[in-house]
Every structure is written in structure tokens, then in C-alpha cells.
Amino acid sequence: MLTKEQRNGIFLLLLLIVILQTVYFYVDGSSEDIKVDEEALPAYTNEIDSLRRAELEERKPKIYPFNPNFINDHKGSVLGMSNEEIDRLLAYRMKNKWINSAQQFQDITLVSDSLLNEISPYFKFPEWLRNPERTIKRVYTSESQAKTFTEKQDLNKVSVQEIQKINGIGKVLSERIIRYRNSKIGGFASDVELFDVYGLSPEVIKAITNQFTVKTPRIINKIDLNLATIDELVTIPHIGYDLAHNILEERQLREGYKTIDELEKVIDLPANKIKIIELYLHIEKENR
InterPro entries annotated for this entry (predicted)? Predict the structure, then answer.
């Protein structure tokens, strides 16, 4: 004999069967065919292809300005050069010769016109090659001799009040000068460091140096420009890693600097900071 729970289970099962049969006979389970707009389909396809091409283009290695003299196997391959073209370039460089133009690059490597047109806009040659006559306008003013060197007071010993006596210098600027001086152990190394004091115009600096000058300069351990590493160069004010790289690249192209003044030809070196940078550099005689 069935228990009450078993009878209830059988009843629910029969009820479920009846419901399913009713749904099967009275509900239309067929689905309508999906309509496709045949005219719009090509436009959608083109849009998808366009997005796919854009994504592939985005994945391509980006090219930044570079000196073609330093192309290696990997760089040449990325640029689309063949192994033979890369080998011709490397063989030429092994002779310690330098490429100085896009046309010379093609003459040496024999790359196609199409590849040259594609990569030559990214060539970065030193400024002294692109414009040998380039001259840098310095912003430093000459020191009018209102006082002789003997008569001038030592800039490393004057007070805020004494500097304030200069026409055009108030409390703010005079305190800024002293604060800059105190930030350097030993004070100013040269009058040109006044150009590093924010807010001083060349005219005001000229007025200051008419009355004061550095007589007890701080000692700077200078770095040999022809032996300096990037890590050493970046310790110098106004030289970051990019500029340090340009300085070393120029040094390699010149096979060493002959004079400090040749720094003027370095790409991106700030013309109004050259004299300050030069305070930290020297060239050993045996390296000249």
C-alpha cells in the first residue's frame, strides 16, 4: 500500500506530464527566421575589417627618432631591412666610418626607395651635421666695470641687506639669492650661477656683478668630458638622461671632444645653461 507521500509524488508527476503535453500541443514553439539586411551587411563587414586593421596597426612597433649609425640586427629587422642590408651597414661602421645623410644611408645599404622614404623621416643626425653654420646665441651679459675686481665685495659673503641696495632687487630676490648660495656647500662657484636663481633677469644680474663677484668659489670636482659615463653626467645640473645620451653620442661621432665649447653642438643642450654645465666639466690634456 502506497504511503501518503508516495501518492502525492505520483500525483505531481502526472500533473507535470499533463502540463508538458498541453504546452506541446497549444504553444507554437517554432521561431521566426532571422532577417538579415543584405544591403547593410557589406557596411558592417567593412567596419569590422577597418577596426581589425586599426588594431593590427596599433600593435606594430612604434618608431622614434634615431641615429642610423647605431642600427643593430634587431633594430634593422624591426625597420624592415633585410639581413644583407644590415650586414652592409655594419661592415661600413666596422671601418669606423659614419653615415651623415639619408642618401648616404641608401648608398651604403642599398635599401629600396620605398623603405628609405618610410624610415628616413625618423633619422636623427647631430645638429652640427645638419647645420654646420649654427651658432648659439648666449644670454649672458658682459660685466660692466662699475667697480674693479678688487673693489667688489665677495658674493659668497654679502648679506641680504647689502644685495638689496642694488637697484631692482627687493627683499624677495635678495633672500632667494642667499638661499641659493646656502643650498650649495661652499656657496657660489662662479658668477654665472646667478642665472640659476629664479626671477633674476640678465639686466639685474649685470647690476649685481657690477658690485659683487665670487672671490672665494666653492670647489667642484670636475668630470672629464671624454671619460664621463651617463650616470656621472646626470649628476650635473640641467643634464638629464636624454641629454647625457646626446652628449655621449656627439662624443662618439667626434671621436672625443677637443674643447668644452663643442658642447654647443649637442642636440637639446640648453644654450643659456652651457656656462653653468661647463663648471662641472674639463678635458684632460692627454685626451685632446
Answer: Endo/Exo/Phosphatase_dom_1 (IPR051675), RuvA_2-like (IPR010994)
Which 3 state secondary structure label does DSSP give 4?
Answer: helix
**What letter represents residue 77's amino acid?**
S
More confident residue, 21 or 234: 234
Q: Which grid coordinates belong to 199?
A: 626671477
Cα–Cα distance measured from residue 288 to residue 266, given in angstroms and rounded to the nearest whole number? 18
Question: Structural domain of residue 268, as residue ranges?
Answer: 223-287
User: What is the reported pTM?
Assistant: 0.48
**CA-to-CA dists, residue 106 to 69, 82, 118, 128, 219, angstroms:** 12, 13, 12, 21, 50
How far apart CA 179 and CA 214 sit, in angstroms, is 16
What CATH number does residue 273 fall under? 1.10.150.320
Question: What is residue 250's three-state secondary structure?
Answer: helix
Which triple of cell numbers denotes residue 47? 567596419
- Of the residues 86, 103, 125, which one is the last residue of a structural domain? 125
Residue 9 lies in a domain: no
Q: How many domains does the chain have?
A: 2
DSSP H or E stretch at residue 223 = strand 223-224
pLDDT over threshold 60, residue 273: yes
Q: For residues 12 and 51, give the distance between their C-alpha atoms in angstroms, rounded to a whole number.
A: 56
